Amino acid sequence: MALSTGQPINYGQRVQTYGYGLDDIARARDRVNRDEVMQNYQTSKKFDNLAKSDLAQMNQRGMLDSGVARKRREQRAAEQEFERFGLAGQTQEARRQLDRQRFMLEENLAGGLQQDAIANALRRFVMNQSLQGLI
């Protein structure tokens, strides 16, 4: 078995790659959180504007006290909840994807460090064998 004994293992490179990966994931998670807040705000604003326009239309027709206005408010509330549910699902999927990326990053680090440790042990074994042959 011919192994190179001249190159030391560079653990710093693996740890640096891991750190950069974690930083990227943290930034992406922050972006997902900001997007979630912004989407919730935009949804609220959209449905507030729709409610105001519905109110204005019902007022012009003299239908404010009718069951039609109440039914319209209930429909808008249901539409808003449905849209928020969809946004929450998208956000959860984005967070799950980030969790999968972090898991893969940790697996790569652990696997790489384990391979480096095995390679280091094999190098020491070869060095030991060659030194015993010289003595």
**Radius of gyration, whole Å:** 30 Å
The percent range for strand residues is: under 5%
Overall 3D shape: rod-shaped
Number of discrete helical segments: 2
- The rounded distance between the terminal residues' Cα atoms is 20 Å
Q: Mean pLDDT score, rounded?
A: 85
Secondary-structure element order, as H and E?
Answer: HH
What composes the largest sheet?
none
Annotation, overall tally of beta strands? 0
Structural features, described:
- There is one protein chain.
- By secondary structure, the chain is an all-alpha fold.
- It has helices at residues 11-61, 67-134.
Key terms for this structure?
135 residues; mainly alpha; 2 helices
Characterize this entry briefly.
The protein has two helices and no strands.
SSE order and pairing:
Blueprint: H1 11-61, H2 67-134
